[in-house]
RNA sequence: GCCGCGGUGGUGGAAUGGCAGACACGCAGGUUUCAAAAACCUGUGAACGCAAGUUCAUGAGAGUUCGACUCUCUCCCGCGGCACCA
């Protein structure tokens, strides 16, 4: 008997598929298209590991499946070939990045062929090829012509190790995404793309994308939209104004100072008026020296300097307030200046405490008593109250009153009038209600809390403003209390664990517990306005609206929307990238390279070791040129573009990768795009995917492409889960790489493909456990033996299990659940091995079911069974719905929800019929007496439950 | 701190309101063999029991329901992202 030998059949079919051009997508094919895209790899020297395989195998299953559905499939591959690692490796080996990259590509290509993925290599691209980067440069020119690319001086992220600037997206918690060095700020003149123009569209259009929610959430957070108010604070005796952004216009009356970030441009204009200029300038100088990371690491202690001699005016109440410069305010967010409201912002609170700045409360918390909610239509009475929390430091217990009448627990409390001292009143209430007189260490906690409730005994709604005072018991001295008080309440000393919202009746209890445990902090939640003139009594939301409207009326502010997203810095001071196609002319200024002169070639003979400036500057031949406008001597821009620019449009190039006259032919772009399925890791959730969406939208806006109504390039995204080894990501530096090569040698490609798919849910991370591959290999042997040994008869056959499997496998591929699709196929073969005859029709259908997962094996079987042509030119089987239906269903028989046994019935059986069957069943009829059941619940075909209790 | 994902046998995982543990790995016993490997068969969540069977069990605790891995709430643990964002 012939044995399953992947080593023989796999290379054979890979060669045949290549020669017959099975995978070449056809531009002229009238069938519906399916553009299936993998995130193209960066060809590193490390080669592919089993983690990379997972995505390629999954996309291949989907591509082959769609091909079998009759679709015209485009599944291309290429190389994200520019980038730092190649350059660094080349420096180390005294080689050239191009040589390094070409070698790496050769290795990758060989490995990708081994996977047996149906890539259309005729469309292969390489971003470092002048035929490709010509169009990257063209893209830059188009953005420049339309004011979407600009140059400005700005404080930018600089990686001292990589010796280049980085985009915001490439700085991960203050460190360089690539090398992990601490990133510092440098003031440099750099090129930016205006991605912020598209912030709203990039955010809004996420809603309609068939992408994983978590990826969309990451993008939403990164874009960071917040709606708020711009407010202008006039500077006294000056024409100058400080513009701030806030989301809390409701707290404006509580603003007691404003803060400028050290980088704020206004500081220059104020110099003449600042009395302590030297101190201020020293502070600014110092702040500049710190990296972003240092600034944020030093979270504990906020620092700042007051600008002596200048005051700002709060536009809402014309109060004079101080101006500070402090580095806790970020230059890069909002307007680089804030209004500080210490009572309602933690940072401002901390700062105000340190520098003795007034803290003014304007928002108080509000609670509705859920146990006694206000009743509509009743009179509403406002009252001021005081509550006392008394702790006995000796026992740790708290004083509490248990109301005999209401059967509830309260703290000592009572009403107060406006003129009364709150602490005195609280003390009085404690003594009156409990008799204790020795109360010490009193503290007023937080602000009053507004609470609404219904007072039954008075038949009225009450609005209380209750202040909370904390005491400690100094001694057990007690005086006699009144008879009424004695009759009304029991005096309890309760354990700290009973200090909770359930034991105590107060609706304000959660807030008080917070204040009791963290006595010193700002109240930052929403609430009700106080100390805010005519805005008093409004809630925060209403007040934000009304106060902003008022500011608008007096010309001191307006509603605005702010985004965290910054413009994309694309200049890089490194060699291995696409040169920015710009010429600087002493006479004409910035002159774009004319389109006809593209590409601006990257010089090959050059010392590319980094030294803080672009290596291209060293090449006289590259640097010196003539101005395309006036013909005078001029110099080229020597920075190269971020490699994310290369990858921001590559999916377009695949549609027409050889085109010499355009980035791609218009009709081909329209034919293939948008991408129907994009498969790749979550690590690109922000960087690549945001940039690609931006570029696609920009190209649409400029009418350079037109393939999608809102310019979205990727209709469906699937994030493949990562494969871990010993709990961490696979990487060569950690030495925990599992290479596919040995596994292919031992088990073959199909087995490894199968295991990659079987390891777990495709969208979740999985731990690599190589032992699992033997199960797949045994399965493939079983499949092989089945087709080798069984008698295939040319007669019709009906089999429910086979029909069901066709149905399930189809659904599971569509739902991206290859792991359960495979377990269904395994079940089918476990079932089939009990038979030795199968119809030709079924044998073929099952053969095709296997094909997307195990293409080599399936193709071999296909051929051995006498079929001409590739299995991938056949068509995906359809199940017969009637045959797939269960003839009998198993119903669980339950007593009070506990399964006692099962019974087989017709799927359409009624409750009575099932009960009859149970009565007939020897075992079950002993257990259950249907006449005793209080209630019978029958879920057709699933369960029948006798409810006894 | 905020947001997201996850927690089920010895292991990877299945089941998204109705028989918990499909499928696979591993392990144990058996068949075969001079022997071993491979293959095949049987068993395999835990506890008690000779057995029939009973009880317990999906991170912990509560709730909703005739019935909860699945829904709701509170909490614990692990992973990932963001973070002085005004």
What does this structure look like?
With 949 residues, this protein is of the alpha+beta class. It is built from 30 helices and 44 strands. The strands form twelve sheets. Strands 17, 18, 19, 20, 21, 22, 23 and 24 form an eight-stranded mixed beta sheet that branches. A hairpin with a 2-residue loop joins strand 36 and strand 37. The longest helix has 19 residues, at 50-68. The chain is flat and about 105 Å long. The two termini are 64 Å apart. 40% of the residues are buried. The model has no long low-confidence stretch (mean pLDDT 88). The structure holds one RNA strand of 86 nucleotides.
Q: In a few lines, what is going on in this structure?
A:
This protein has 949 residues and is an alpha+beta fold. The chain contains 30 helices and 44 strands.
Cα-atom radius of gyration: 37 Å
| Average pLDDT taken over every residue | 88
Q: Gap between N and C termini, in Å?
A: 64 Å
| Helix vs. strand class | alpha+beta
Which range best describes the helical content: under 10%, 10-25%, 25-40%, 40-55%, 55-70% or over 70%? 25-40%
The parts where pLDDT drops under 50 for at least 5 residues are: none
- Count, helices: 30
**Shape annotation:** flat
For the biggest sheet, the summary is: 8 strands, mixed
Total strands: the figure is 44
Content of β-strand: 15-25%
Topology:
Layout: H1 6-19, E1 33-38, H2 50-68, E2 72-74, E3 78-79, H3 84-93, H4 97-115, E4 125-126, H5 130-145, E5 149-159, E6 164-166, E7 171-172, E8 175-176, E9 184-193, H6 199-204, H7 213-223, E10 226-235, E11 241-246, E12 257-260, H8 266-270, H9 277-289, H10 292-297, E13 304-313, E14 320-326, E15 337-340, H11 346-355, E16 363-364, E17 366-368, E18 380-392, E19 397-403, E20 408-410, E21 413-415, H12 422-434, E22 439-455, E23 460-473, H13 483-488, E24 489-494, H14 509-517, E25 528-529, H15 540-553, E26 557-562, E27 568-569, E28 571-572, E29 582-585, E30 589-592, H16 620-623, E31 624-626, E32 633-636, E33 640-641, H17 643-646, H18 650-653, H19 666-672, E34 677-681, H20 687-701, E35 717-720, E36 723-725, E37 728-729, H21 740-747, H22 749-758, E38 766-767, H23 773-789, E39 791-793, H24 800-814, H25 818-832, E40 837-839, H26 840-850, H27 855-864, H28 881-884, E41 889-895, E42 898-905, H29 911-920, H30 922-927, E43 935-939, E44 943-947
Parallel strand pairs: 1-2, 1-34, 3-4, 12-14, 17-22, 18-23, 34-35, 36-38, 39-40, 41-44
Antiparallel strand pairs: 5-6, 5-9, 7-8, 9-27, 10-11, 10-13, 10-26, 12-15, 13-14, 16-25, 18-19, 18-21, 19-20, 19-24, 22-23, 28-33, 29-30, 29-32, 31-32, 36-37, 41-42, 43-44
Helix pairs in contact: 1-27, 3-4, 21-22, 22-23, 24-25, 24-26, 26-27
The protein binds one RNA strand of 86 nucleotides through α7, β11, β15, α11 and β38.
């Amino acid at each position: 008997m012939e044995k399953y030998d992947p080593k023989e059949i796999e290379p054979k079919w890979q060669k045949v598929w290549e020669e017959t051009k099975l995978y070449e997508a056809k531009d002229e094919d009238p069938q519906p298209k399916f553009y299936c895209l993998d995130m193209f790899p960066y060809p590193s020297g490390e080669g592919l590991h089993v983690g990379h395989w997972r995505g390629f195998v999954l996309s291949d299953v989907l591509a082959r499946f769609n091909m079998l559905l009759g679709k015209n499939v485009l599944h291309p591959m290429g190389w994200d070939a520019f980038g730092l690692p190649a350059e660094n490796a080349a420096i180390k080996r005294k080689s050239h990045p191009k040589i390094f990259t070409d070698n790496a590509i050769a290795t990758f290509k060989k490995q990708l062929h081994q996977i047996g993925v149906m890539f259309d290599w005729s469309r292969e691209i390489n971003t470092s090829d002048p035929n490709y980067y010509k169009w990257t440069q063209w893209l830059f020119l188009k953005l420049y012509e339309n004011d979407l690319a600009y140059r400005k001086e700005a404080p930018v992220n600089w990686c001292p190790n990589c010796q280049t600037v980085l985009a915001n997206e490439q700085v991960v918690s203050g460190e360089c995404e690539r090398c992990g060095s601490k990133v510092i700020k440098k003031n440099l003149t750099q090129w930016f793309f205006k991605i912020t123009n598209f912030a709203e569209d990039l955010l809004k259009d996420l809603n309609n994308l068939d992408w994983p929610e978590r990826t969309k959430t990451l993008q939403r957070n990164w874009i960071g939209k917040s709606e708020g108010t711009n407010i202008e604070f006039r500077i006294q005796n000056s024409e100058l104004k400080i513009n701030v952004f806030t989301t809390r216009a409701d707290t404006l009356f509580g603003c007691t100072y404003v803060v400028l970030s050290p980088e704020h441009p206004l500081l220059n204009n104020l110099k003449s008026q600042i009395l302590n200029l030297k101190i201020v300038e020293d502070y600014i100088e110092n702040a500049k020296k710190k990296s972003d990371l240092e600034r944020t690491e030093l979270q504990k202690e906020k620092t700042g300097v007051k600008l002596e001699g200048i005051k700002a005016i709060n536009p809402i109440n014309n109060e004079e307030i101080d101006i500070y410069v402090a580095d806790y305010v970020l230059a890069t967010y909002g307007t680089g200046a804030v209004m500080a409201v210490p009572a309602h912002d933690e940072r401002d609170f901390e700062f105000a405490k340190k520098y003795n700045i007034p803290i003014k409360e304007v928002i108080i918390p509000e609670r509705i008593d859920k146990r006694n909610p206000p009743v509509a239509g009743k009179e509403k009475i406002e009252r001021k109250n005081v509550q006392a929390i008394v702790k006995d430091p000796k026992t740790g217990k708290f004083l509490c009153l248990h109301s005999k009448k209401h059967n509830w627990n309260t703290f000592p409390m009572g009403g107060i009038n406006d003129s009364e001292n709150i602490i005195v009143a609280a003390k009085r209430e404690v003594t009156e209600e409990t008799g204790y007189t020795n109360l010490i260490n009193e503290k007023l906690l937080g602000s009053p809390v507004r609470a609404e409730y219904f007072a039954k005994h008075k038949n009225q709604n009450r609005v209380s403003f209750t202040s909370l005072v904390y005491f400690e018991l100094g001694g057990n001295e007690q005086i006699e209390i009144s008879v009424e008080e004695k009759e009304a309440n029991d005096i309890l000393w309760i354990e700290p664990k009973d200090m909770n919202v359930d034991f105590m009746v107060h609706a304000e209890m959660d807030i008080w517990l917070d204040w009791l445990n963290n006595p010193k902090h700002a109240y930052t939640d929403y609430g009700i306005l106080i100390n805010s003139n005519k805005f008093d009594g409004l809630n925060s939301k209403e007040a934000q609206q009304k106060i902003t409207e008022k500011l608008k009326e007096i010309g001191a502010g307006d509603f605005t929307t702010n985004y965290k997203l910054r413009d994309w810095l694309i200049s890089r001071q490194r060699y291995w990238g696409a040169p920015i196609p710009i010429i600087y002319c002493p006479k004409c200024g910035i002159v774009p390279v004319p389109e006809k002169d593209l590409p601006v070639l990257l010089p090959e003979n050059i010392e590319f070791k980094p030294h803080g400036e672009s290596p291209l500057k060293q090449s006289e031949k590259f640097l010196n040129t003539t101005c395309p406008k006036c013909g005078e001597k001029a110099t080229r821009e020597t920075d190269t573009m971020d490699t994310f620019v290369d990858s921001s449009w590559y999916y377009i190039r695949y549609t027409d990768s050889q085109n010499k006259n355009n980035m791609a032919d218009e009709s081909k772009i329209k034919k293939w795009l948008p991408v129907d399925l994009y498969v790749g890791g979550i690590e690109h959730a922000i960087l690549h995917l945001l940039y690609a969406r931006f570029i696609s939208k920009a190209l649409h806006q400029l009418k350079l492409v037109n393939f999608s109504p809102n310019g979205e390039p990727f209709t469906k995204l699937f994030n493949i889960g990562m494969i871990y080894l010993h709990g961490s990501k696979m990487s060569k530096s950690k030495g925990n790489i599992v290479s596919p090569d040995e596994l292919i040698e031992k088990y073959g490609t199909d087995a490894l493909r199968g295991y990659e798919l079987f390891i777990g849910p495709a969208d979740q991370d999985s731990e690599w456990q190589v032992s699992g591959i033997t199960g797949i290999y045994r399965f493939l042997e079983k499949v092989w033996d089945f087709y080798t040994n069984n008698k295939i008869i040319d007669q019709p056959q009906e089999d429910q299990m086979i029909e069901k499997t066709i149905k399930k496998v189809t659904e599971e591929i569509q739902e991206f659940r290859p792991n359960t699709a495979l377990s269904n196929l395994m079940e089918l073969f476990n079932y089939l091995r009990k038979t030795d005859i199968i119809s030709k029709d079924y044998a073929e259908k099952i053969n095709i079911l296997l094909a997307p997962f195990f293409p080599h094996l399936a193709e071999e079987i296909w051929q051995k069974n006498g079929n001409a042509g590739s299995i991938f030119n056949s068509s995906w089987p359809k199940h017969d719905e009637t045959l797939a239906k269960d003839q009998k269903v198993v119903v669980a028989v339950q007593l009070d929800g506990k399964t006692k046994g099962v019974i087989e019935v017709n799927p359409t059986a009624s409750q009575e019929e099932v009960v009859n069957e149970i009565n007939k069943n020897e075992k079950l009829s002993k257990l259950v007496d249907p006449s005793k059941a209080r209630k019978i619940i029958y879920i057709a075909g699933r369960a029948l439950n006798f409810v006894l209790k």
